[in-house]
């Protein structure tokens, strides 16, 4: 089967507007979470990581386009533009576009939005991005809850393996909105402090926003220095509950098993796990159980939610990109917010920045609807 | 390119009619979608209490999948590796509007987790997976219109990579009073070749 690579990438976030800056901040354990008091978003103050609107506007205006674009579109276009530029790949027939998002331009449903309501349709968002860059092919929009960002990578790989595309650009993004905050708050899932994944003292999730983009390609020439190849992937359902994860971690267990089977490697070769770690009781416990069932309890693991909060449809791609840099830098990054183990099964949570020679990492995500996804990535030696 | 896979069965729900493999199995004169789907659920002896708490999109997708999978006489004792690949235009916008209504006025603010959970299109895949115990590959795609080429390519990729033995795929659209479901099952056996022309033909049945 064709080798598929993840190459040039970008992150637009509260911790910076390119991957290197963001990773530098993570290295220094800088969190993008801050206390926000905005009654238009939520009746009570909450922690979130929000992209600086002025910086976003300036970056976007530099691209010069006459049309009006929503906040999410500006984030996505700014991010994707950098990746297309770095890759130097002409947007011909053999280039695909995947968009990963849970809610897209959901903020336009608010009666005070200046944008037409039809902008809330994800296919309209897809068309806006396609037309801005003049992609030859229509956007494929993936909306599969919180696994969307990782699943988008699997889908890109599958499209390349089928010989349909040679290169696929993925752009993922979701924004912090009253819509999302009020929903998670109604679940009583929001934390009133910066989130603490896997920690005994955790108190729930934070919601954040990012846009993240990447090039997925079959061309080994002129890859980014931090490029990785996809060894195996899988995406399995819990078949258990629509809003709570399986108590046995069944779907995650099966997703990882499927990825490892395709990768054809022993579990011992996994050097690092970039996990989901939302900092809810049920999620963190479920992950710990699944990792233990697979004998992965000693592998260094982190959740990056302590830096960005949960960025929904973008989180999986965001965390994959940081994992790639982690591999390239041979550096394990701190699972911010963690001090004392708060799950019933042992897992090896990374407490401080630690150098380690690495070749392989496992990325996982889980979400509503019982969805789970796992991918195993291997460092490309240029 | 000729496909080695086949379409075993298909279900359409539109215009107050439920059909299986092209034959009408339920039809009524209801003007309201929720009335229609409830009546169809009863007539088809679905018997699954969770149906009543689902949102409209999930009811539509669930009933179409149930009609199709019941007809397959799956052995519930064994595991069935059936992937689910769904698509539509409106995502979960019908329920999104309901959640938005509940937060629009600060004087009348009543967001509910029972509504909010359905503001994701793939929840209907979760509902079907729970009922039929499918621990399988699943994904939800959004397109402007029915996209047979994408469904064909993606389904073939799942089958040829042995990620699934069968794929339940199609289009489940719900936007206000507009609704349409077209689901079909792709496997190794059957008489209808899995290709774009046949998918389109069955969609228009």
TrEMBL record, chain A:
<dbReference type="InterPro" id="IPR014031">
    <property type="entry name" value="Ketoacyl_synth_C"/>
</dbReference>
<dbReference type="InterPro" id="IPR016039">
    <property type="entry name" value="Thiolase-like"/>
</dbReference>
<protein>
    <submittedName>
        <fullName>Beta-ketoacyl synthase N-terminal-like domain-containing protein</fullName>
    </submittedName>
</protein>
<dbReference type="InterPro" id="IPR020841">
    <property type="entry name" value="PKS_Beta-ketoAc_synthase_dom"/>
</dbReference>
<dbReference type="InterPro" id="IPR014030">
    <property type="entry name" value="Ketoacyl_synth_N"/>
</dbReference>
<dbReference type="Pfam" id="PF00109">
    <property type="entry name" value="ketoacyl-synt"/>
</dbReference>
<keyword id="KW-0808">Transferase</keyword>
<dbReference type="Pfam" id="PF02801">
    <property type="entry name" value="Ketoacyl-synt_C"/>
</dbReference>
<dbReference type="InterPro" id="IPR000794">
    <property type="entry name" value="Beta-ketoacyl_synthase"/>
</dbReference>
<comment type="similarity">
    <text>Belongs to the thiolase-like superfamily. Beta-ketoacyl-ACP synthases family.</text>
</comment>
<feature type="domain" description="Ketosynthase family 3 (KS3)">
    <location>
        <begin position="1"/>
        <end position="379"/>
    </location>
</feature>
From TrEMBL, chain B:
<protein>
    <submittedName>
        <fullName>3-oxoacyl-ACP synthase</fullName>
    </submittedName>
</protein>
């Amino acid at each position: 089967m064709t080798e598929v690579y993840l190459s040039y990438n970008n992150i637009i976030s509260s911790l910076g507007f390119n991957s290197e800056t963001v990773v530098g901040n993570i290295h220094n354990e800088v969190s993008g979470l801050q206390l926000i008091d905005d009654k238009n978003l939520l009746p009570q103050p909450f922690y979130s990581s929000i992209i600086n609107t002025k910086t976003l506007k300036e970056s976007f205006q530099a691209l010069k386009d006459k049309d009006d674009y929503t906040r999410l579109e500006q984030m996505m276009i700014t991010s994707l533009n950098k990746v297309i530029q770095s890759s130097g790949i002409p947007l011909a027939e053999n280039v695909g576009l995947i968009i990963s998002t849970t809610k897209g331009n959901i903020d336009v449903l608010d009666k005070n939005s200046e944008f037409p309501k039809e902008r809330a349709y994800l296919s309209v968002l897809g068309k806006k991005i396609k037309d801005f860059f003049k992609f030859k092919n229509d956007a494929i929009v993936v909306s599969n809850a919180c696994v969307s960002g990782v699943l988008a990578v699997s889908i890109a790989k599958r499209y390349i393996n089928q010989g349909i595309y040679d290169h696929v650009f993925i752009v993922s993004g979701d924004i912090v909105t009253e819509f999302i905050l009020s929903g998670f708050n109604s679940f009583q899932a929001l934390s009133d402090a910066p989130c603490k994944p896997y920690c005994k003292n955790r108190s729930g999730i934070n919601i954040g926003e990012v846009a993240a983009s990447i090039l997925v390609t079959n061309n080994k020439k002129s890859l980014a220095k931090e490029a990785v190849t996809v060894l195996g992937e899988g995406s399995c359902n819990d078949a258990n509950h629509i809003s709570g994860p399986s108590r046995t971690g069944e779907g995650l267990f099966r997703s990882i098993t499927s990825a490892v089977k395709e990768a054809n490697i022993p579990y011992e070769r996994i050097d690092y796990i970039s996990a989901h770690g939302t900092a809810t009781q049920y999620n963190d416990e479920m992950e710990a159980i699944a990792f233990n069932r697979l004998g992965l309890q000693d592998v260094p693991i982190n959740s990056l939610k302590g830096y960005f909060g949960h960025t929904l449809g973008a989180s999986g791609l965001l965390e994959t990109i940081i994992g790639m840099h982690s591999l390239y830098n041979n550096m394990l990054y701190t699972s911010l917010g963690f001090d004392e183990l708060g799950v019933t099964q042992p897992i090896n949570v990374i407490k401080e920045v630690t150098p380690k020679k690495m070749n392989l990492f496992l990325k996982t995500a889980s979400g509503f609807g019982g969805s789970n996804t796992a991918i195993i990535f291997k460092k490309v030696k240029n | 390119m000729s496909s080695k896979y086949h379409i075993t069965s298909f279900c359409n729900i539109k215009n107050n009619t439920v059909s299986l493999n092209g034959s009408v199995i339920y039809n009524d004169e209801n003007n309201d979608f929720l009335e229609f789907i409830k009546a169809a659920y009863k007539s088809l002896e679905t018997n699954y209490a969770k149906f009543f708490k689902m949102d409209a999109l999930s009811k539509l997708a669930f009933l179409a999948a149930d009609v199709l999978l019941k007809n397959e006489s799956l052995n519930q004792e064994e595991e069935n590796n059936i992937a689910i690949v769904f698509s539509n235009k409106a995502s979960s916008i019908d329920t999104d509007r309901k959640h938005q209504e509940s937060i629009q006025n600060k004087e009348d603010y009543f967001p509910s987790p029972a509504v909010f959970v359905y503001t994701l299109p793939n929840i209907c895949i979760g509902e079907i997976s729970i009922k039929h115990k499918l621990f399988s590959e699943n994904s939800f795609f959004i397109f402007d219109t029915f996209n047979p080429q994408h469904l064909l390519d993606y389904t073939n990729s799942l089958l040829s990579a042995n990620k699934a033995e069968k794929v339940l795929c199609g289009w489940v659209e719900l936007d206000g009073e507009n609704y349409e479901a077209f689901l079909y099952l792709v496997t190794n056996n059957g008489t209808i070749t899995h290709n774009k022309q046949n998918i389109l033909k069955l969609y228009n049945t």
